[in-house]
Amino acid sequence: MRTAFVRRTVLSASAVSLALLATACGESDKTDAKGDTKPSVSAPASASAPAAKGKPEAELAGLILTPADLPDHVVKPATPEEVKEGAKVTTDKPACLPVAQAQSMAAIGAPAGVARVKFVPKGKDVGPNATAEEKAKAGVDALGGTVTSVALASYDGAGAEEAFAGFKKAAAACASGYEIATQGEEPGKVTKVGPSSPIAAGDEAVAYTVKLEGEGETVLTELVVVRKGNSLVSFYSLSITGDAEQPRAAIVVQAKKLG
What we know:
nine-stranded antiparallel beta sheet
């Protein structure tokens, strides 16, 4: 049996997949399977951006990923309930909170606005003449795809740089793990925050594999945070298979949309 948190994590991936795929069918967009994690390498930081005003959520909605950006995925906004739950996230180690926030689409630091979406690969297009069995199989195959939650935040002045630095510091300090929960829920155990395949995107980027464990079960999730100017975007990926994939193509597309 999985612990409550590990079980909720996997069930959450399943539920999100089902919700996103309710009007689409297709196959998983699998990428290379992960082996041992490799050292993460940030893209060279650019010169400090001039003081700027952060954008509100309404403006960020035009900058975050859309179905047109990811035609092979189902892309939908986060629900109000998901936003509310993310805002309640807590950790047993206060220093680890920024990492838990990035896992939960919650704001890191004090942004002027945040926009949130989630996406999952479409299933295989089996065509209008497909049998019911073929359509069902395509839907089941799609559920094996990685579900990714994205939070795009915009900050005043150097707020994005400060939030990015704070996140990196938290990830380093919490490499050995922490407990994470939302209010009223049983805590779950994160046992490792380790470097994942490096990402070259934006002005700065870091990538981690976050390991969740409980009662002999292990779930590997992927967490990437990218800064571009005064914007910060987090990508948290998980799969009902227990082994998520890093959504590299989507990360590159999102970074380009930020300029």
